[in-house]
Structures are given as structure tokens and as C-alpha cells.
Amino acid sequence: MNVNDESNKLQRRLFLQRLGITAASLTFIPFRGMADTETLEFGNGIRELVAYPQKRPLMLVTARPPHLETPFAVFNEGVLTPNDAFFVRYHLPNFPTSIDVGQHRLTVTGQVNKPLSLSLAELKALGETVEIVAVNQCAGNSRGFSSPRVFGAQLGNGSMGNARWTGIPLKTVLERAGVRAGSKQITLRGLDRPALPGTPEFVKAIDIDLALSGGPLIAWAMNGTEIPFLNGYPIKLIIPGYFGSYWVKHLSEIEVIDHDFDGFFMKTAYRVPDNDCQCVPTGSIPEKTRPISQLKVRSFITNLRSGENVSAGHPINLQGIAFDSGSGISSVDISDDGGRHWQAATLGKDLGNYSFREWHKTWEPQDKGKVALQVRARNRRGEEQPAAGLWNPGGYAQNAIETLSVLVV
């Protein structure tokens, strides 16, 4: 596939012709609008809006490899994030720009009785197709709000999305291969590669118990259509409740191993302090770390932005989203006095424990002046968002109570 949706092909050809670039040039040349930008609420927060094939204009973080954030207003469009607005994150600059789905294979090797090499058609024929609605969130989502700032992409709140994923359980594939006794983990690899010798390959690993739990999914469809190229076409690993670094795009290789994998993106990168809060005192270095894994409970107001004016005495239907790692959201509360008092919001339709959960609350501001609106969520395990951000050197797993400053006039 060179992005096989016909309308997108036509749009790309017209765009390339407009720039005087031949079709043999780089497939994924972005279209930059006329000075369209989005401003995030931290220092150096101006982001250019750029449209890649199959994508509406998204916030550009890096161009090589593509790293694109979703403008936050998108999350007010509905509980499912549109495919063309879903964030994009690659780790290595040699990313694929064209995939022949007829030639693409998923291999399963290592500690198995029967090594596999599966085409997409063969994968689909292995067992029953399943669907799940699940949030994919980058581990560094909201990193730009860390104080003091930390190394890494300075992300706002747009490196997340919620979609309906269709595919086959990873368990089904592994059972067909026959996992041998004593197996400990599986490693996962896609098609992106380093540009320079010595640069670590992007390989992730999960424990064999998780791999065989029935939760992880090898997906080929997203919101009812093929997965967009930049989100992992033709197949992508989905691990509901886990951060997006495990959701390997263009999945091509699975290896079953009898030891703990110690590759760079498990042993060095994507690690958090090894304690309950995954935090350390500001500016300090953790004594012990562990790989980041499951999402934390979070919530957002989606139909207001900081700095907006609202009218005193006029009711406003506040709305937003909440999610966690899979226990499910039990409640969402709103405060308009800096967290001294809280009012319960009403939860919307439940699309499953791994999905965004919509909520709404009628709020009628009375006194004029600045108001700090806050939203917090609690899950069915009793976990609640912290009042303030918890710091770690990677800026990972941010989930502090969100605060919007609005002016009542």
C-alpha cells in the first residue's frame, strides 16, 4: 500500500504536482498550511499544523521520524478519535513509506514448536475476529507541563486517542505456534529502522503471561477501516490499558524468548521510578527504575480552553473524557473553587473499560472574575488523580488534576 484510499491518492498527487515533485519522491511529504499554528499552554508552545497523507492538519513535533499531536479540540468531536486526527509517533528515522500488503509477513519464532510466517489473509483466517475500544496514549503525553522541564519532546495533551480496534487475539497466534514451557517474554518488532550504525533497534517486550492473557490484539482495522499507514498499516499490536510504546506499528516479528529482554527501549528508555507514584522529588534521580507499563487514571474538560470568557448567570454544559488502565471509570467530579468543593458529573455511554468515557455537567457561573475549573476522575479500584503533577526525569505518565482558568464576565 502507498496509501490505498483513492481519494487520498488523488489528494497526494495533486499536492505533489502543486509542489513540482514527482510521484517517485518521498511518499510522506507533509503539506504545510499558510502559517496555521496551535499554541500549547507552556513556554515555547507554538506548534505548526501540518497535514500528512490520510491526516488532517496535526501539530508537528518532529518531521523525521514523523511525530504528530492531535489538536485538543478534536477530543470534543466524539468519544472515538477520527483516524485522520489520530496522533502519530515513530522512534526511528528509517520508517516505511510504502508496504506491499501481499508481501508483508508476520513471523513468530524462538521458543515455539512451529515457527510461523503469516500473510494478512492467513492471519485473519486463524480464528475469530474480535473488537475492542481502547485508548492509545504516548508515555510522554503532557510532558511539556513538567516543572521543571525535562528532556524529550515537549508534548501537550494531544498524544492520545481512542479507537475501535478489530483483529485477532495475540494469544491465538501464539497458541498456533505452540509456546514452549519455560518461555518468559516475547519481543515485538515493526518495520522502522535506525539511520546510523550503533543506534538501537526499536524492539519492545512483554511478559508471556500478558501475551497469552487474551487481552493483546493484532489489529488490522481502526474505527471500521484499514489502519492509517502512519498508525501502523497493515497490522498493529494493541495492548489495552498499556502505554503506546508497546503498541508496535507495522508489526512484522514476534520472538518468544526464555529470558528478560534487555534491549535499549526496555532496559534504558521508557522507564519510571520503581515506586507506587512513579515519581521522585523534583530534579532528583531515582535509585531504581522499572519499565513503564499501564495507564493512569486521567480526565479532561474538552469544550473549554484556558483563557476563554464565559457569561455569569448562564448555564454551560461542561463535557469531557476520562479513562484509566482498564478497571473502568466510576466517577468524575468538577470544582470551580480550586478544589475545595466538588460536584459529581454524569457519565456518558460506556464503550468498555479501556475506552474514553464521556462525561457532562451543567455549570452556572455566578460571580464575575477568574475561575479555576478543575476535573478529576476516580476508577473502580479507587484510584484518583493527584492534585499536583508528580515529577520524574522522563516526564512520563502525567495524570495530575487538570485546571482551566476561565474569565466570568
Give the helices and strands, then pairings:
Elements: H1 6-19, E1 31-39, E2 46-51, E3 58-62, E4 67-69, E5 88-89, E6 106-110, E7 116-118, H2 120-124, E8 130-137, E9 160-169, H3 170-177, E10 185-189, E11 203-207, H4 208-211, E12 217-222, E13 225-226, E14 236-238, E15 253-257, H5 264-267, E16 271-273, E17 289-291, E18 298-301, E19 309-310, E20 316-323, E21 329-335, E22 343-344, E23 346-347, E24 357-363, E25 369-379, E26 402-408
Structural class estimated from helices and strands:
mainly beta
Distance between the termini: 53 Å
Count of DSSP-assigned helices: 5
Q: Estimate percent helicity.
A: under 10%
Q: Roughly what is the average pLDDT, rounded to an integer?
A: 93
User: How many E-type strands?
Assistant: 26
**CATH-assigned homologous superfamily of the largest domain:** Oxidoreductase, molybdopterin-binding domain
Global geometry: globular
What Rg, in angstroms, do the CA atoms define?
22 Å
CATH architectural arrangement of the largest domain: Alpha-Beta Complex
Strand sequence of the main sheet, in spatial order? 1-2-3-4-5
Task: Determine and state the CATH class of the largest domain.
Answer: Alpha Beta
Which stretches are low in confidence, meaning pLDDT under 50 for 5 or more residues running?
3-26
Largest sheet: 5 strands, antiparallel
Measured by DSSP, the beta-strand proportion falls in: 25-35%
CATH fold category name of the largest domain: Sulfite Oxidase, Chain A, domain 2
What is the count of distinct domains? 3
